[in-house]
Amino acid sequence: MPTKNFNKTPYALTAPGVLFFTALLGAPVVMTFVLSLHSYDFTTGIQSDWTLANYADVLGDSYFHKIFARTFGLGLLVTAICVLIGVPEAYVLSRLSSRWRSIFLLVVLGPLLISVVVRTLGWALLFGGNGILTMIAQALGFSDEPVSLMFTFTGMTIALVHVLVPFMVISVWASLQKIDPQSEDAALSLGASKFTVLRRITLPQAMPGILSGSIIVFALTASAFATPAIIGGRRMKVVATAAYDEYLSTLNWPLGATIAVLLLLANIVIIVSFNKLIERRYAKVFE
Amino acid sequence: MSFLRFESLKKEFGKFVAVRDMSLDVERGEFISLLGPSGCGKTTTLQMVAGLLQPTSGRILLDGKDITNMRPDKRGLGIVFQSYALFPHMTATENVAFGLEMRGVGKADRLARAHAALEQVRLSQFAHRYPKDMSGGQRQRVALARALVIEPPVLLLDEPLSNLDAKLREEMRIELRLLQQDIGVTTILVTHDQEEALSMSDRIVVMQQGDVAQIAAPLDLYERPTNTFVSDFVGTTNLLTGQVSQPGKVSVKGTDIDVDTASAGVGAHVTLSIRPEKFRLSDEKSNQEVRIDAAIFLGSSWLYRVTGQLGELFITQPNTGAAGYAKGDTAFLDWPKGALTLFEDAV
Ligand SMILES: Nc1ncnc2c1ncn2[C@@H]1O[C@H](COP(=O)(O)OP(=O)(O)OP(=O)(O)O)[C@@H](O)[C@H]1O
Ligand SMILES: [Mg+2]
Prior knowledge:
Order of helices and strands of chain A: HEEHHHHHHHHHHH
Strand order of the largest sheet of chain B: 6-7-8-3-9-10
Strand content of chain A: under 5%
Bound molecules: adenosine-5'-triphosphate, magnesium ion
Number of domains of chain B: 2
Distance between the termini of chain A: 41 Å
Number of strands of chain A: 2
Structural class of chain A: mainly alpha
Oligomer: heterodimer
CATH architecture of the domain at 62-240 in chain A: Orthogonal Bundle
Largest sheet of chain B: 6 strands, mixed
Mean pLDDT of chain A: 89
Number of helices of chain B: 9
CATH superfamily of the largest domain in chain B: P-loop containing nucleotide triphosphate hydrolases
Number of strands of chain B: 20
């Protein structure tokens, strides 16, 4: 037998991590997938047959189309707003003196230190019909009616942006840190105005951070549960809350599993193709 | 009036004085080096010329015009940074064309000029590479082309050769100097490498902790340094401390040495400087017998460390093809009159 120089060390070193993920992530995903292939009967429960009927149900039902469209629309909108807020925020942060920077970094990251449920309930208090938003609107004379953003798309968007902007800031900030400040000086000396330097030199170099931040924000929005559940409620269902309802209200576990699997697949397809796009565009430029 | 003029430039960072009082007149087409040890304020001076740092006081005049408060993007100077500072997301051509684009040069024209500039630095075949796929020397030349293509009145170079290996550095020195003479661009080079400064410059400004130690042409600087800092920093030298015993004689460790004592009075403590290559080491008897402590062969020359009446000395002798002295040999030391320089500051 020819002796191959087979190095076991990398496999041995990654084994604990692989086992951990197989047991705690892989197994439930596989079980969910298996579950989605069974049919469900309202009187006798989960059947032991094999069928794609659940997939046909979800894919053919305009009710679910709407929920999926809403989820990915929400994902795109939240991502876009996070880019608009997070990129300037990260840029300003990178220009502050180191003392102010650490203070503001704490402010930016602050939301991450609070449980997502607590934070979202805070928004619910603000958005509710007798919440602060209503008080302000009425005090300013904009409205006599109670103003409520509860159970609205706008409310969900605002609450999710608040939760997810820090991820964008961190990601963009990390790539801004890598920029050689002399490359900006060089552009200045070549006759570029400060704005041109920002647009042509700084921003393109921060692009990998913006794009990877977008992936993170999009993925977290598309699979977000707590915020849509509290702010969106039953009226503004997204895919994650729809799956939850199938499991716990209708008790139709196979259908819930089907929705979950479809969400996972859609997420993977979107993120992987976006990532491919980035790599094609930027891998040749950046190490 | 000179082309580029610094008038009492001063830069403070808080309480720290990075450049104390710098005055300099640079002629059109001249190649000036700012030479000094790390942290002496070379980059700071250059950045003030570039407009990237605001001087605390003093003025900078270019072609008779005060540019002290002019924005860097309006000065139009060509700069090559210590780190090259290429734009990583642009190819070599795009990097070079950027300055032209900022000047509103049309696309076809600026690509043609960028290619010509890349050709000038012999990089035509790398025109479409990104900086990360180029070697240090190639990046350096892209940076140079990028600075030259805008036809700047003044070229500022911040240690452009310091990241290159020894052989490439020597080649680039000659190339850069020839290119500069070809174009005739007024150039200020920052370096801490005295060989680089000596080989490339018309004049050298030696800096020491924010002060100008001496301004002179390379040969003058080497042969006639005006203080011990310069004589020690530029080239290598042997410094001997002694006392003027009578006019024309300095006593060093009990030995009287003939030297022009000039203004130094009898009894003054002085420092004598003599370059290693000014000595002659031979078997001919002289009044200086020395023992060879170490002999190092450098190819074109021998470097010896010897001990004699004057203490420890470093000596270089050209390699004539014959065997040199070996450790433990004795030899005799001689030097031409005038090889010694006397400084009135004692080290
Ligand atoms: N922004 C700054 N704030 C405070 N001190 C500074 C600043 N920039 C430079 N200095 C100080 O000024 C002095 C001169 O710096 P400069 O960069 O001009 O040195 P240099 O001669 O170019 O050295 P090197 O050969 O290492 O590049 C240094 O002591 C440095 O610490
Ligand atoms: Mg420097």
